[in-house]
Amino acid sequence: xxxxxxxxxxxxxxxxxxxxxxxxxxxxxxxxxxxxxxxxxxxxxxxxxxxxxxxxxxxxxxxxxxxxxxxxxxxxxxxxxxxxxxxxxxxxxxxxxxxxxxxxxxxxxxxxxxxxxxxxxxxxxxxxxxxxxxxxxxxxxxxxxxxxxxxxxxxxxxxxxxxxxxxxxxxxxxxxxxxxxxxxxxxxxxxxxxxxxxxxxxxxxxxxxxxxxxxxxxxxxxxxxxxxxxxxxxxxxxxxxxxxxxxxxxxxxxxxxxxxxxxxxxxxxxxxxxxxxxxxxxxxxxxxxxxxxxxxxxxxxxxxxxxxxxxxxxxxxxxxxxxxxxxxxxxxxxxxxxxxxxxxxxxxxxxxxxxxxxxxxxxxxxxxxxxxxxxxxxxxxxxxxxxxxxxxxxxxxxxxxxxxxxxxxxxxxxxxxxxxxxx
Length: 423
Ligand SMILES: [Zn+2]
What we know:
The protein is an alpha/beta fold. The chain has helices at residues 52-57, 91-98, 103-108, 112-122, 125-141, 157-171, 195-212, 230-242, 259-266, 279-287, 296-302, 310-315, 336-346, 351-358, 360-365; strands at residues 8-18, 32-42, 45-51, 65-67, 72-75, 77-79, 144-150, 177-184, 218-223, 246-251, 270-273, 291-294, 320-322, 383-386, 405-408, 411-415. It folds into two domains: 8-76 and 374-415, Roll (Urease, subunit C, domain 1), CATH 2.30.40.10; 78-365, Alpha-Beta Barrel (TIM Barrel), CATH 3.20.20.140.
């Protein structure tokens, strides 16, 4: 995207709601709320933010203005867990599952991740980009200005490298900032009898190449019964750390897999899913300062798992983020606002917690909290406007909620042509 505007005054904001860096330690308790507010953006960064009268007094007379028409302003949202790089869909599988087959049964029968992997390997890079790119646009319309994107449906190195390169190519076509993650997702079918060979390939070839070629900022591993063991996952994560890549773990989705304790042991920045999490695991994650990422859309979509025990996680001192898990098998949605609603209902998260979980805390998961995740002077001018009267309404309207307008670095990058007020 090549837009020239990077100085902008967004005025007539009905209510501005944002986390503040200074409240980081008490994140679950406090959100800054400023009625009748404005934001002055200079050179793509927030210069002044606050009550409209104060911001206007400090704004140059000739600055370009955007009338928010009383909208709710929040930081651009951060979706810190997505799998957007794939071709085809798994709609038929979705209905088979609803008819009684389990996710793991279908995976064992060659469906699931392996089915998507076959399609990704057969697809050209152009086709992979063509099908994946619109998902990033839909995410933007839901207010997301920064997102994490994983590979993970290539499985072998050729497929994974194609997927990671597709993310890098897509980045050049979209306004959002993308954080790329190499996901070690499942054993490729052709390695079924040669498990050790594949693990060696990951450690000796894939992770070093990811680092050397700058294909990703992080490594993620699916540590689960049916995917990778704790010992295998530990080897992968240690290899990633040796190469300076940050670490995430898909942990404890289907049981007490050991993934959460491993994430704490290696000091991973985040552990994702955590549907099965006991107090020992929560305390370990809290002590290791590993953020727990709740993915309520996948629990909703799979239908037979418990929601992560977020209230207890917060009570025991964990930081929590909420993300979509956008993927063809277990969460076919780009809507982070929908995930807020699900987390409100099923994880009993408050509107204030949900804002932190989808902005500041999520920015920490991708190591971008100094740049994005709150509306504070010095940060990038990433702003989402919502035709809503208050913060509570952001998770109350569900299923079709889009941002009225989105700005990245002070540039208007999305405007809903049909944004009507909700009261
Ligand atoms: Zn995932």
